[in-house]
Fold Angiopoietin-like 7.
Amino acid sequence: MNFSNVALVVALILLTETKAQNPKKKPAPPKIAKGQCCDEVRTLKVQVANLTSILEELSRKQETDLINVVRQIMELDKQKQQLDNRVTEAESKYSEVNNRVEIMQLQTLQSATQTSSDAIYDCASLYGKSYKISGEYKLPKDEFLGTPELSVFCDMETNGGGWTLIQRRKIGLTSFKRDWKQYKSGFGSVRGDFWLGNEHIFRLTRQPSTLRIEMEDWEGETRYAEYGFFTLGNELNSYKLFIANYSGNAGNSLRYHNNTNFSTVNRDNDKCVDDCASLRKGGYWYNCCTDSNLNGVFYRYGEHKKNTDGITWYGWHGPNYSLKKIEMKIRPVSFQP
Ligand SMILES: *[C@@H]1O[C@H](CO)[C@@H](O)[C@H](O)[C@H]1NC(C)=O
Ligand SMILES: *[C@@H]1O[C@H](CO)[C@@H](O)[C@H](O)[C@H]1NC(C)=O
Ligand SMILES: *[C@@H]1O[C@H](CO)[C@@H](O)[C@H](O)[C@H]1NC(C)=O
Ligand SMILES: *[C@@H]1O[C@H](CO)[C@@H](O)[C@H](O)[C@H]1NC(C)=O
Ligand SMILES: *[C@@H]1O[C@H](CO)[C@@H](O)[C@H](O)[C@H]1NC(C)=O
């Protein structure tokens, strides 16, 4: 609609209103001739009618436009809602799966710890519950033994399985030159290089236990040493080592460390004037000093024959050959595969 048309409409409206409001007043004398007047009025009326219809159409159109816009917004809202729903659904499914896994684990643990004779406190008891795949397991905290939850690595294959690893050397990035506190609580990652911790080893070996040490050299050969009996004293007794009944093909190189306290760089309990933990750069049952040094320095191929502070086992490769891989593992003497 153009401006002149609007002006026309307004003028017309004013005219009719004036007429209606002043019915008794004498109308102002028409300034134009009658025929001209009526023709113009007619034209104006037609225009008004047209304009009205245009206006109506416009407002109808606006209304439909508005309705369309609202509809589109609602549609978008709906889509957004559907997306939100899908996200929520996916999230709840995910957490449901997670929950189910956690509940399954919890049920396993609860059914497993119902009676104390059934308690899971090492890989052998897990094996007894038909967990026969080697890998990382979480031992539940045990109220009876007063022990915390503990991550362990279980060897469920070697010689019947049921072995709880207490030490591993294979990657060589974790330093084993650690202090008393660290050797006490353990360090490293059970999937890689680690020491389980003297306190845990002490606790686990309160049941009569067997120790098995597996080793590999840089030529890919393997040997093992097994002790039918293995236990540690408590911290007050400096985690003193007690071993008996050697068997294996690597040599009895732990015997020299039998009945010896544990030493670290900051706790010298060895039977020597020298500070063996500092000389051999590890934590171990240093006598004066070593016939083996399984927590010594990891030397890579090429460097492995040059030092006396490496991962040594004198009974196989002598005092200056650092081995490539070590695993120390324990299981109850009573274990039946
Ligand atoms: C009014 O509308 C009719 C049809 O809608 C059209 O033929 C006519 O020319 C219009 N008149 C004016 C003055 O706009
Ligand atoms: C060593 O083995 C013998 C024979 O099997 C056994 O009688 C003895 O009790 C074992 N020693 C220890 C400390 O377990
Ligand atoms: C081992 O440690 C205990 C106390 O922790 C101590 O009484 C004993 O004398 C130590 N033995 C040796 C050989 O150092
Ligand atoms: C370790 O010492 C004890 C005595 O304290 C002995 O009975 C045992 O046989 C020794 N172990 C080894 C492997 O010699
Ligand atoms: C390693 O030990 C052997 C004997 O045990 C010795 O002859 C050799 O010199 C040693 N090598 C080094 C690099 O110390």
Q: What stands out?
A: The chain has a mean pLDDT of 84.
